[in-house]
Write a structure and sequence with these properties.
Layout lengths: L2 H4 L5 H7 L3 H7 L8 H4 L18 H12 L3 H8 L2 H7 L9 H5 L10 H16 L2 H4 L8 H7 L1 H12 L10 H5 L17 H9 L25 H38 L18
Helix pairs in contact: 5-6, 6-7, 11-12
Length: about 290
């Protein structure tokens, strides 16, 4: 535990970040299995981290980071190895694929069951890569995932909570509720991909236990409707984009014409004379 003060002498910024992490919380609760600085950074042989021009760890560092975390989280690490992310890091040495610290943070690691982590995961975890065209265009993956997610009821509610109360709890699904956590597979995987209707149904039934076999048919797979993808939805949207402004415009025209009639036309009409009590019209001479 003396590393808390020893390392902080030269690394005050990192010490400040780690002070609120889940690891430090465990240590403060007398859990001696909680990692300290030297468990992740060998104090005598720690090399300088290799980074690219953007300051991101290299592919070699990604693989090394995952192995460091595996010292305590080996069960999760073995599951991660079989995922599309883990195989990309350890087998293909792909720097575009996230390692543990890309999702959980480096020194300010929070527990995955904390409300803040769950609520902010779409934008601060998954969205960091999946809304980045520089990365996604390499693999033909749509960058509209955040746009389409926020546009539906699930994402709208999560976004509202995120803006009003970032630490609030929500039972609305975030990305990993449907795609998995450490065992994420390719969407088009022939057996485990969520694009398969039976796999999507299983994901939906976690929150909608009464969902029937046709329930997933309404899902557009994060793609904005087009003449080639979900053409029926696309043309219905076009129809309503024309119909609704036309109806509102016609109603507005009627209202404006009525106002014009009341204010302009009616004022131009001569006022009919009002007869007095003797039966004579007012304004006539004797």
């Amino acid at each position: 535990m003396q590393y808390k003060s020893t390392c902080a002498q030269c690394h005050p910024d990192q010490a400040q970040k780690i002070a609120d992490s889940i690891h430090t919380q465990m240590l403060n609760n007398n859990n001696l299995n909680a990692p300290v600085c030297s468990d992740c950074h060998n104090p005598h042989s720690q090399p300088v981290i290799q980074v690219d021009s953007n300051g991101n760890p290299s592919s070699v560092e990604h693989a090394a980071i995952a192995k460091i975390c595996a010292k305590c989280h080996n069960t999760i690490y073995q599951e991660y190895l079989t995922s599309v992310h883990g195989s990309g890091v350890t087998d293909n040495k792909n720097p575009d694929v996230p390692a543990c610290t890309d999702c959980h943070g480096v020194h300010s690691i929070q527990g995955p069951d904390s409300p803040g982590f769950r609520l902010n995961s779409p934008t601060q975890v998954c969205g960091k890569c999946h809304s980045n065209p520089a990365i996604m265009n390499k693999y033909g993956i749509s960058t509209q995932v955040m746009t389409t997610y926020v546009a539906d009821f699930h994402g709208t509610t999560v976004t509202l909570f995120q803006k009003t109360d970032p630490q609030a709890s929500t039972n609305k699904p975030v990305c990993y509720d449907c795609h998995g956590v450490h065992n994420i597979q390719r969407v088009d995987d022939p057996t485990k991909g969520i694009s398969l209707k039976q796999n999507m149904l299983v994901a939906c039934q976690r929150c909608h236990p009464n969902a029937t076999v046709n329930f997933p048919d309404s899902w557009l797979s994060h793609y904005i409707p087009s003449p080639t993808k979900a053409p029926l939805v696309y043309w219905v949207n076009i129809f309503y984009n024309i119909l609704i402004p036309a109806v509102i415009g016609f109603m507005l025209l009627i209202v404006l014409s009525d106002i014009y009639r009341r204010l302009v036309i009616n004022r131009r009409r001569p006022v009919a004379p009002v007869p007095d009590q003797a039966g004579k019209n007012t304004g006539e001479g004797d």
